[in-house]
Each structure stands twice: as C-alpha cells, then as structure tokens.
Amino acid sequence: MPRELHLVADTNLFFECKSLSQLPWQELGGDPVVILLTSPLLGEIDKHKKGSGRTRKRALQIFEIVRNMLRSQQSEHVVQEGSPRVVLRKAPMIQPDLEHNGALNYNKVDDALVGITSTLSKAAIDYDVAIITDDTNVAASADHIGLRIVLVDESWKREPRQSDEQVRIQKLEKDLDTYRQQEPVIKCEIFGLDEGKQCASKAIAKAQPLTQVEINDALEALKAKHPIRTDFSVPPDEILGVESIETLERWSYIAPSDETISKYQKEDYPAWLKKCHEIFSALHESYPKSDEVVTLTFAFENVGTRPAEDAKIEFSCNGDIAFRRPPEEDEDSVTGTRSPSPLWHRPSLPSPPTTPRIERIVHRAPFIRQAKHSKGVDIGSVLAATNTPGLRLATMLQRQEKLLSPLWAQDRITKGILGSAISNPLGDAFARQHELVETMNTRMIPEPSISSIHRPFIPEQHDPEAFYFRKWSKGSPETYGKITCDLWRHQQGKVDFEIEVMFAGGGAANGRIVCEVHAGNLTRPFTTAVAVKRIINEYPFTEDITQMIAGV
Predict the structure, then answer these.
(1) Do 534 and 501 form a contact (C-beta atoms < 8 A)?
(2) For 134-286, where are the alpha helices, taking DSSP H only?
(3) Which pLDDT does position 192 carry in this prediction?
(4) d(Cα 116, Cα 93) in Å, to the nearest integer?
C-alpha cells in the first residue's frame, strides 16, 4: 500500500512545470502527496510578484491560494482528490537541520530547503520525505547528506517561454491565416495513382531475344517431331485378289528419283529449318509493344470564399519522363476512353517439306470387263443456248422497269414513246431506261441552300471563366505546360485535366510530375507532386515456343 509522501519543493515546481493539476503524480508512488509550502519557498515566490510575464502570473496564483487558506483558516488546499490525492499544505515554521549548519549556508534559499528536508526526514515515522527540484546544485547537496531526491522529469515542464520576437511572429501568422481565409483555396484530387500511394507505376512486359541455346533446343524439338527421311527403299511386289481371276491385281513400287531425294534432303528440309530459325530469332520483334503511357487525371476545385483571379495551372516534370495532352485519335468519341492495346498473335511455323513419295503401280488382268457408263447430257450446250448476252441484258432491264415504273407514271411518260419503234424485249427495255434518265436529270437540278452561302469568319469570344491551354497542343510531348483562367469561380465543382506521362529509353525509368497553381489573389501557390516510374518485366517465350511447335 502506498505511503504518504511529503515533498519539499523549490520554485521550479511552480514556475517551470505545468499546472499542478496536470502533472502525473502517480509516477512518484505515494498517496497522498503533500506539497509543503515552506517559508524560504514563499519568500522566493513573493519576489516574483513584482516581475513580469508568466512567472509573475504563477506567483500571483500561488499567493491567491495561500490567501484563501488564511481567510478560511484551512491548512491545506486540494489540488487533486484521487489517484493519488494531492494537497498543498502550509509549513512556514519548520527550520533547517542545525546538524548541517555550516556545511550548508542557510542564508541561501536552496541550502535552507535542503536543511528543512533533513529536519523532516529525521522526524518522519509513517510517511516518506523527499525534496523535489530541477536544480542540480540542490540535488547534489541533498544526495550528499543522504536525503531522498525527486528530480523533475522533462515531460513535467511546460513549453519554453516565447521571446518578444516569437510572440510578434505568432501574431503575424495569425493575422495571415485570417487573411488567407478570405482567399481562394485550391484542392486537387489525383486519379490514376497506385492504391494507397502518392505515385503511379507502369509494369511493362518486354520481350528479349531468344538465346542461341533456346533456339537450338526449339529446332531439336522440331526435328524430333518431323525427322528427315533417309530410307526410301521400296517394298516387294504384292499380288491381291486371288479368290477370282477377275479380281486379280499386282502392286509394284517405284522409289523416288535420286534428284528428288537429293533436293528434299539437301535443299527443302534445311531450308525449312532455316526459316524456323529465322522466326525464332525474330520472335521478340513480333511481340507487341505495351502501352507505356501512364494516364493521370488532376481534378482541381476552388473550395475557398473568393474566385481565383488570373489563375494559372502549371505542369512540369523532371527525370526520364515527358507528358502530353491525350491526342484525339486515341480517344473514343462517346466514352472518351483509350482503346485497349492489341493482343499478340504468335507467329506460326511453316509446315515441313513434303517427303518424296514411293509410287505404287496397280496391274490388273487384261480380260477384266470394264463397266459401261451412260452418255449423259452435255450441260455446256444447254447453258450456251440460254445464256446469250442479249437475253441476259434484256432480263436485267425488264426487272428495273418493274421497280421504276411508278416514276414513269408520275412524270407522265407513256410507254409507247419508243415501244412502237422497238418491238423486241431488249429494245423495249432500252427505251424505258432512256426515259428514266431524262426524267432524273431534270429532277437533279440542285436548289440554292442558305448553308452554301459563304459566311465571314467570326472569331470565338474569350470566356473569362473558361480554362485555356497556352502553347500546349494535343499529342505533343512536353516538359512544361500551362493552363490559364481569368476568373476561377469558387464552389463551382471540379475541373478535370488529363495528362499522359511517357518514359524515355527502353529500360526502367523514374520521374516526377509537379503541379503548381498561382493566382493574383493567392498569397501562397498550391503545389502537389506525383512520382512516376516504369518497371520492366521480361516476357517468357517458353509456353509460346511449345505451342508453335505443337501447331506444325
């Protein structure tokens, strides 16, 4: 169970520490904690009543507590009721220990407090006594004569006193904050960043050329699947159909010529392997390049109480990058989204050369009867009789006549204009075609249109509340870009600007996009930045080579 703890305090506890009610008294281990107001302490505090600043304020507070204790004839003042209980207690009549008089100069306040602590320690029976101080000299004297010491922890101290210059700066900053509350306030939300980070990265799958070992392994796999043929020996003759003389056949075989075999083995097969070698060597070139652009959208908003006057949004970059406004051809006309990157269609290997065939000759008995076939019909002669050019043209024109006859009737074109002169189907159709052309030529005379009248060029009027790109064309890589607005209204929602970040070189790259917003009535520019990087991952062709070989 904690014992009662009596503390002899010096002025540091009252002037340099936080308020007594805010200190962590439980760290001392006593309950209750009694802070003694000794005569040397009260005398030293009394001197600070005539000072200035926060020390004087603390001195007046303590003496007001002492005065209230005197008025109410109370010996204690409660600082904290529990955990632990902390009180201030009057102790003006306790004298320093005479045993140490001489070794300690009791004319000095610090030595007098050490002497009083010694006196109380000798008389303490059921409570503990300690001196609490932040003074090294006091602590050393108390320790020398065997007294308990409680050194003030740094966490107990209040913030250092501000100088007059610091007070003035603080006041000016407060005035500036008040002024800024009457300015535009720019906020920006950036889309396209990595989740939970203020950066954007692009991982690229890049194809590397196959090594010679990989190419050789692939060619060996092809040879194993389609080996070159070296044996062209012919089998012996065969006789079939011995059940009946009418079905008797003899099969004989003829090997390919030496020239054919030589061409296959020395030209065709090596040429096929060479072509496959070329395809494997250039496989990385056929792999499509990934879209290496990082798209960032900056959504700006003026959430202040004033419009931003002569606003200017500036984009700049550093590192291995550049940026551009998205080109129109990369955007969908309805959704505004970029078209997806094309898929890769792996190249196919050529089929192996055809192996020279061993021919088989079938010999039949000469007396085998051959089946007779019917003569049939000469289809060519039938088509020739019904497919004359004149008849085909007449048929086409007659069909047109049926479709266009309402126009002839509307324009009062009689069918007999040329019908009496031309009696055959071809001439009759030509006559109607002639009438239709004449009628349509008459109708196709264009009428004057107001839209076709030349109008003078009227330049677009400048909108002071619109945003304009200054010398920043679409699709052009830049390292600096500027957008201006004469009057950026506040509380009008977000305005979005999209940029595409491009990387230099073919390897890993890093850079930084910096965006600043300036305005005539904005004392401090708004600034935000995004780190961007490109990560290169090597694309493995192992599975693709397996599929290519399987497809041959």
Answers:
(1) no
(2) 136-144, 164-180, 212-225, 258-263, 269-281, 283-286
(3) 92
(4) 10
User: In whole angstroms, what is the distance from residue 108 CA to residue 101 CA?
Assistant: 12
Q: Which CATH class is domain 5-156?
A: alpha beta
DSSP string, 427-490: HHHHHHHHHHHHHHHHHTPPPP-GGGS-----PPPP-TTS-EEES--BT--BSEEEEEEEEE-S
What is the rounded distance in angstroms from the CA atom of residue 272 to the CA atom of residue 48? 106
Question: Coil, strand, or helix at residue 350?
Answer: coil
Query: How much is the pLDDT for 244?
Result: 53
Q: Among the CATH numbers 3.10.520.10, 2.60.40.10, 1.10.260.40, 3.40.1010.10, which is that of 199-327+462-551?
A: 2.60.40.10
Look up residue 167 and give its two tokens: 């007070």
The first and second tokens of residue 454, run together, are: 């030349």
Q: Which long-range contacts (C-beta less than 8 Å, at least 24 apart) are formed by 79-86?
A: 79/20, 79/21, 79/35, 80/20, 80/21, 80/25, 83/26, 83/31, 84/2, 84/25, 84/26, 84/30, 84/31, 84/32, 84/33, 85/31, 85/32, 85/33, 86/20, 86/25, 86/32, 86/33, 86/35
Q: How far apart are CA 418 and CA 202, in angstroms?
A: 77
Q: Which residues of 399-420 are buried (b: 16+ CB within 10 A; e: fewer)?
A: eebeeeeeebeeeebeeeebee
What is residue 26's DSSP assignment? Answer: G
Q: Please give the backbone phi and psi of residue 386, each rounded to the nearest 5 degrees, phi first.
A: -115, 10
- Largest Cα separation within the chain, whole Å, is 160
Give dist(CA 8, CA 22) in Å, integer.
Answer: 19
CA atoms of 548 and 540, how far apart (whole Å): 14
- Provide the token pair at 60: 């007046």
H helices of 501-552, in order, are 542-550
Report d(CA 157, CA 135) in Å as an integer: 13
Q: Render the burial of 79-118: b for 16+ CB within 10 Å, e for the rest.
A: bbeeebbbebbbbeebebbeebeeebebeebbbbbbbbbb
Radius of gyration (C-alpha) of the chain in whole angstroms = 53
Burial of 319 (0-12, 13-18, 19+ CB in 10 A): middle
Q: Are 540 and 207 in contact (CB under 8 A)?
A: no
| Segments of the chain with pLDDT less than 50 | 329-339, 367-374, 377, 382-383, 386, 413-423, 426, 430
pLDDT at 421: 43
Q: What is the pLDDT, as a whole number, of residue 445?
A: 53
Pairing mode, strands 127-133 and 4-9: parallel
Q: Provide the token pair at 150.
A: 């409680």
> Would you state the structure tokens that stand for residue 130, as one six-digit string?
């300690």
In this prediction, residue 383 carries a pLDDT of 47
Q: Please, where in the chain does CATH 3.40.50.1010 lie?
A: 5-156
Helix axis angle for 212-225 and 542-550, nearest 10°, is 20
* pLDDT (0 to 100) of residue 370: 47
pLDDT score at 278 = 92
Nearest to 288 by CA among 210, 207, 215: 207
List every span in the chain annotated with CATH 2.60.40.10: 199-327+462-551
